[in-house]
């Protein structure tokens, strides 16, 4: 098995947070090295477990003390293995500030390739939002939260529209969004095997993104505050009842409260329209987040012109009637639907 990158067209253009690097050699780890680093792939080292164990991310420490994240991928056939290796190399060729840096990989273990990433220093968004008793995790104010969610939308849109073939996530949640020392997003858990249902999975990324945005606003996981309940509160004009108390919603200036309200509008549309083919794309979401973030910087008390109020979005729609009903009667698709 060759150890260097497959030949990719060299792209020297660099724009914004994105650049494409020329093919280069990466470090080839041995299975034994990574087995030691992850303590034999013990369950206590698991960071993310996707697809019923077919894609598991472990934390690890190399002999030199470097912390790493190891993505263990289970392939069912040689063809799938080749696809995964090709996608690994394509992803390695992309330099985007929100894509974690690939240090190398191991192909010593048959149909179970291992991808090795740098480990971000600041844990996950979920840890900062949900584990407030952990003194090592800092609380996130609204400025940091909207920057984090905007960066996440940006990298998802980039991977779906600028990388060919597109790379989707499919099982996005707050614990897949890692943060470095500057609270810059590093998105882990990307789906590397090709899948015939790529369009459906793009829609699931929008839907799941809406759930994460809702968690950013409420500070509660969907396990503690069901999305159906949150949507009902938003559409009945009671958003302030579910906003994270650590955001001190009522003490914020008017423009900041309106910014949170606009973000809640967007989260609702992601959750509802993200489950319907062709209704809402992650690129649309990312563009709206740019406006929302700019609105916060401008500090002006006016609605962002690029976003729709919920009343406009759901006008003459059965969806408005649906989410206006009692919370128990609202149907919101589960995360990672196919």
Automatic annotation (TrEMBL):
The keyword Nucleotide-binding applies. InterPro entries: Kinase-like_dom_sf, Prot_kinase_dom, Ser-Thr/Tyr_kinase_cat_dom, Tyr_kinase_cat_dom. PROSITE patterns: PROTEIN_KINASE_DOM (PS50011). Gene3D superfamilies: Phosphorylase Kinase, domain 1, Transferase(Phosphotransferase) domain 1. GO terms for molecular function: ATP binding; protein tyrosine kinase activity. Residues 31-338 form the Protein kinase domain. The keyword GTP-binding does not apply. Keywords: ATP-binding, Nucleotide-binding. PANTHER family: LEAF RUST 10 DISEASE-RESISTANCE LOCUS RECEPTOR-LIKE PROTEIN KINASE-LIKE 1.4 (PTHR46008). This is Protein kinase domain-containing protein.
């Amino acid at each position: 098995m060759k150890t260097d990158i497959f030949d990719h067209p060299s792209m020297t253009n660099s724009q914004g947070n994105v650049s494409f690097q020329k093919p280069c050699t990466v470090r080839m780890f041995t299975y034994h090295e990574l087995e030691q680093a992850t303590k034999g792939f013990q369950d206590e080292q698991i960071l993310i477990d996707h697809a019923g164990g077919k894609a598991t991310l472990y934390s690890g420490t190399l002999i030199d003390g470097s912390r790493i994240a190891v993505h263990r991928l289970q392939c069912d056939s040689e063809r799938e293995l080749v696809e995964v290796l090709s996608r690994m190399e394509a992803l390695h060729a992309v330099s985007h500030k929100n894509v974690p840096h690939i240090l190398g990989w191991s192909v010593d273990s048959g149909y179970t390739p291992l991808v090795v990433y740098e480990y971000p220093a600041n844990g996950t968004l979920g840890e900062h939002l949900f584990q407030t008793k952990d003194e090592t995790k800092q609380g996130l104010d609204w400025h940091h939260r909207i920057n984090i969610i905007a960066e996440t939308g940006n990298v998802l849109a980039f991977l779906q529209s600028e990388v060919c073939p597109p790379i989707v996530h499919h099982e996005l949640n707050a614990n897949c969004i890692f943060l470095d020392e500057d609270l810059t997003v590093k998105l882990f858990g990307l789906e590397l095997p090709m899948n015939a249902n790529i369009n459906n999975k793009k829609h699931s990324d929008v839907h799941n993104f809406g759930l994460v945005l809702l968690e950013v606003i409420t500070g509660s996981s969907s396990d503690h505050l069901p999305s159906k309940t949150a949507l009902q509160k938003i559409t009945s004009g009671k958003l302030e009842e579910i906003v994270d108390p650590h955001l001190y919603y009522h003490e914020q200036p008017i423009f900041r409260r309106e910014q949170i309200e606009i973000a809640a509008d967007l989260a609702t549309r992601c959750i509802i329209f993200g489950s319907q083919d062709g209704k809402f794309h992650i690129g649309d979401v990312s563009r709206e987040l740019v406006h929302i973030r700019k609105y916060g910087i401008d500090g002006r008390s006016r609605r962002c012109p690029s976003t729709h109020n919920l009343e406009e979005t759901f006008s003459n729609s059965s969806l408005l009637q649906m989410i206006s009903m009692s919370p128990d009667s609202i149907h919101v698709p589960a995360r990672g639907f196919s």
